[in-house]
Design a protein that fits this description.
Blueprint (H helix, E strand, L loop, with lengths): L2 E7 L4 H16 L7 E7 L18 E5 L5 E3 L6 H11 L30
Parallel strand pairs: 1-2
Antiparallel strand pairs: 1-3, 3-4
């Protein structure tokens, strides 16, 4: 199971447009860890959330961490790559399994933790 940080946005929202390149950079930097953390975007004006979704979108952009244990956290921090990474390292179930010092190093083959305790994966 992976954790997902999801940004719900509207394509016409100025805040969403400003955040888009930052969020794309975050996704690129965390790509080596995609088996643990997925960075996802969704245009909430074009996609309906099922009624049983554990969160709703009331403003744009809405940033949520859907943890591997299925709990959902709101992201209310600064909208920088470094702050997103710190949030994930602190709050993601698998945050302690990822060597965040490797973030942005082009997908080092040693980027994944060698911890073999994967009951949540």
């Amino acid at each position: 199971m992976t954790e997902k940080e999801k940004k719900n946005n509207s394509t016409g929202c100025g805040h969403c447009k400003k955040l888009a390149p930052i969020y794309d950079e975050l996704g690129a930097k965390l790509k080596p860890f995609a088996d643990h953390i997925v960075i996802a975007k969704m245009d909430a004006t074009l996609n309906d959330l099922p009624e049983d979704t554990p969160y709703q979108v009331s403003g744009f952009p809405t940033i949520k961490l859907v943890k591997a244990d299925n709990t959902v956290l709101d992201y209310n921090g600064e909208r920088t790559v470094d702050d997103f990474v710190t949030f994930l390292q602190t709050n993601a179930v698998h945050g302690s399994k990822i060597d965040f010092s490797k973030v942005g190093n082009g997908g080092s083959e040693h980027a994944h933790s060698h911890d073999h305790d994967h009951e949540e994966l």
